[in-house]
Amino acid sequence: MEKTTEPISQQVETYLPSIYSLTLEQLQAWMVEQGEKPFRAVQVYEWLYEKRVTSFAEMTNLPKSLREKLTEQFTITTLKTLVQQTSKDGTMKFLFELHDGYSIETVLMRHDYGNSICVTTQVGCRIGCTFCASTLGGLKRHLEAGEIVAQVVKVQKALDEQNERVDSIVVMGIGEPFDNYGELIKFLKIINHPKGLHIGARHITVSTSGIIPKIYQFAEEGMQINFAISLHAPTTELRTKLMPINKAYPLPKLMEAVRYYIEKTGRRVTFEYGLFGGVNDQIEHAEQLADLLKGLKCHVNLIPVNYVPERNYVRTPREQIFAFERALKKHGINVTIRREQGHDIDAACGQLRAKERKEETR
Ligand code: SAH
Known about the structure:
This protein is α/β, with parallel strands linked by helices. 36% of the residues lie in helices and 19% in strands. The protein folds into two domains: 23-73, DNA polymerase, domain 1; 80-361, TIM Barrel (Alpha-Beta Barrel). The radius of gyration is 21 Å and the shape is globular.
């Protein structure tokens, strides 16, 4: 019987960790502890990420005793697909149930340059941005690395049916990735590994609301990953109004950290700037923003606000969005306007919400 169909109370008791949480090095160490050869870990990785099997029994080149040990100690995926929706524009939204009854959302976007997945890192979020749906119920728990990896594998398996692959990943779903730093880094290593899903670092983007100490730490990881900051305001006063995290990590200190990051990694950063009607979308704000970013190796991504029923923000008129863009360009700032996808299935930026099924079902 599949574990996920059992009542929640039993699921918790029988919960085994997901093998997707292990980096190749960790799996090699586990093999050695079991008296096995480290190359067995590579074989397991091939089954998990190239052949994408769903049971240890299928790993036919492993000795039976090893397959049994793996079955006793690990599960493969702990995610169960509850809903899979496709938007008119091809965007797909997945609702997955976790082993403890919580559920999370993952989005697959179709671009000219390929398929991109937006993954979730936490059940809920505790950052409290005033425009975002993901933070409405607070933080329930962090995801384990394997629960983030499993989102990618599950979506890849759906794409396998269409002979397509996941080309890139954005860590921009529910949650603040830097608030779950250790699991995030493990996830990045697993999906980037040539024996894992082998998604190139340059095809992975991590976005943060600005947890400054973690920006310094991330700069030292030596990964060629794209890095984005949710800026949303050109002054510290305005940023505090939109994002309470700016009180703990104020804009001037954030910019210092970003400068350090650029210097250390030599990489360009992206600033996400949501346009919230009448709040931060005037030409004067564009001028202040250009001033703030002058000389920085960066790119600005303008995101027209997405409707969240509980929030009062309104859209900036199209013409004004273009005027804002032009004002930045005039100052030599690289800028693009984010194309919106999956609107009809609430899959757009900031619209994802952790469904609290655990409480509902108890
Ligand atoms: N917690 C991370 C990852 C989220 S990325 C972060 O804050 O960076 C998703 C992006 O969408 C962030 O830039 C976020 O600020 C933005 N966003 C959230 N709600 C939005 C909304 N209603 N409209 C437009 N953008 C929104």
